[in-house]
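#dry-run=false #mode=assembly
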Amino acid sequence: MRRLWARLFSYLNRERVERELVHEIDSHIALIEDDLISRGMQPSEARLAARCDFGNVTRTREVYREQLGLPWIETACRDLRSALRSMRRAPTLTLAIVATLALGIGAVTAIFSAVDQTVLHKPFLHYDRFAVFGWDLRDLFVNISYPVQIMPCIEQGKSFESFALRDQDRGALNTGTETVGAEYASVSRDFFSAFNGKAVLGRLFRPDEFQTASASVMVLTDNFWRVYFGADPGVIGRSVILENRTYQIVGILSPEFSPPTPLFGFLSDFFIPLRLRRDPSFLQSRGLQAFTCLRKGVTLTRANSEVSVLCDAPDASPFLKERFKKSPLYLKSLSDADPRMRFTKIHGAFLGAVGFLFSIACMNGINLMLVRLIERRRELGIRSALGGTRGRVMHLIITESLALNLLAGLFGVILACGIKPLIINVMTPSIDAFAGAGNLDSRALLFAFAICLLSTLLIAIVPAWKLSTQDPQSMLRESGIAFSEGRKLLRLRASLVVSCTALAMVLLTGTGLMIQSVQKLMSVDRGFNPSRRIAFWIDLPKTLQLAKPRINLVQRLEERLQNFPGIQDVTTTGIAPLVGVSTRGLSGPDGSTVEVDFNPVSPTYFRGMNMKLLKGRWLPSRPEGSHGVMVINESMANEWFGVEDPIGRGIKIDGERSWQVIGVVSDVRDLLRATAGPKYYYPVWQDSDRMPVISLIVNSSIKPTPALIQSIRKAIHDVEPQAGVRVPVELEEAARAQINKERFMLFILELISALSMLLAVFGLFSVMAYSVSQRMKEFGIRLSLGAPAQRVFNAVLGRGLALGGIGIVIGLFG
Amino acid sequence: MSSENSKPIQIFQGTLDLIVLRILETMGPQHAYGIATRLQHVSEHSLNLNQGTLYPALIRLEQQGWIAGVWRKTENNRDAKYYFITRAGKKALGKETERWRRLAGLVEKLLLEGS
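#status=ok
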């Protein structure tokens, strides 16, 4: 403590202390001199001998200084000053280094931040510990379970910390001014706390509201509130009508609230409380999504073994037992099950690419730094000859590197601020970027600082090591570049350039492969042509769900829109392909109940969607007799009937009525990653009380404009004011959205490889430019001795090409 | 600073502090050269002590308040910084000597045991 004070004191008085030290050393040498003279030495000799005896004055002062004052700050300040001085002296080189590093740091930071806030963004705490209950349906994980299965886990399970249940539903909501179709969810008590839901206005549900059946309260999402209520704060306490029941709006969720997306990607517009009950109708009837946060330290395997014991519900209905016999319920970690996060496998490759870009920038930085130090070889030689220790010189180099990197980091962050919104803009709204994602957050700044330090070290280490192996004498002696050392350095620098080119080549090749696979994904034949088709999802109120009013409505809508300007074709289905699917139990070929996708369609559907008829005939345009008919798809024909002819066969619906197969059509691929499964189509008038929604699919003759979409919406409202029309989905857009993340990654990879190519070329340029400037004298001699200019030119060009070529070859085969 | 027969001994940090304190206690105020000369004399030139070691020790002791320095004239009428031991320094010397003896005794004992 006392020493610290003394140090601080002498630091503040450092000039006086320094003067005193010089004085003391002088007197010390004088005393030695006196002594030597008194022993009979000549004064002139004695002077020299005294100096020799004392040793290195500078070194002594240096060591003394380290004891004195606060040497760390002092030397750092001095080194910084010297660094800035030498940077000013060679502005071009400084600019080159800073530009290279700024590009590297900026690009890496922007890309890191963009990916961090979108693909890697963890929307809520303990994301890694969350799992969801579900089962396998063909290639698809269906995250739907039944309360009867989950209840034992909730009541007795030991692996689970909390449960969050969501019952997804849709309906027409009367906001007081209009009827809108909306997606909503009943959620259990811990849902909001599990997924970090907070109210920005009003409140969330009270515990007692999950107990009583009479509580009719509702919480809106920020987006829904903005679109349909104009972000009116006075909406709290207002009453709205959902399915003939009045609800009171009690709160608005914050825009960051982002629970796991439901199976088919519908995000809820608002939430109501889910009351867990013990009566059989609740336990058996509703499929819901059950999320659970596992206890700390509990593995998924352990939790699953508990699930397999507890979920084997003996009191489940025969229907459920049948359904889960083939594929029992199990837990899947949310990071695997959530479609948003399905990207984890590419993260590695992606981080690799960013790493490559960064190393290319660093290699260029090392290269330029070496040039700097070669230029300053004499100065550094003098420094070490005058008693600068190796550590001190290293300190100097590191400080200089730090100064350069911090400067580069500053520009890099500015650059990143510019690049990042660009990256986000290119891909939104297709990726889940939340509000403010365009800005650099504190994580990004921290990241930028960290990579600044990393590149500081990387850039300083090689030159510092190179220097410390050099003899100060040789550094002093050589005025030009030393022959052997120069060769070695040149070779080192050339190898750095070759590695840069090689890395850039690897990146380019990788990007090429990615382009190929994305293109393959984009050109997958989906069995119909989604281009220029828009799906209008219409939620029907109860009165319109019955057969007669529904057929009537479909006819009126199709008639109205058929002759609408800008529309080529219009057809109706239940849920449009690419938007969602609905499944239903059929009696399979072996008598067991099987879930099969279905779509009730209007007779124009087949033509409207450009599907291929493989066998039999398409659905009739009006009812023929009393028996039901259906058209099945190719997969269903193959799976159910094999080589037999399915035409004319009967299939039992819900174990009762039998419908006759009258045709086979080609498959439609809804999900890019899952193969098409069995599916059947039936006329919209047949069994129509099943579906509370219809979807109009409009084929526009021109590229759909917002004005056209708006006028179609209005036309639908004119035909049926009670119809809840949702925001329409452009099917082509929906198709593309399925590979959004791949496309986003592709875009980033393209960006990275373009930048790395740029940096590699820049590195090659700097090496060539420097070696040419070093060999100017040699070229002059060659030319004056009669070498044709062409040959000199060829020699330089040849070297450049050779370096680039070696890099490309290594990159291609490495 | 050479020695005829043996390699110079490297000196531990801390030990030097003790020696300097002891010299100042027995010989009275001394300048740095005087301390260095005395050290060489006592050690019969077997101590490799350069000024790069002595000066840091002096500044260290001064910062601890164990010695203090004043500028005076030498016999030859030269200015020199004379160091003298303070009261705190004397106390510290007592403690340090005790500690050193215990350490040396311990090392000695260990070495004897081994043989």
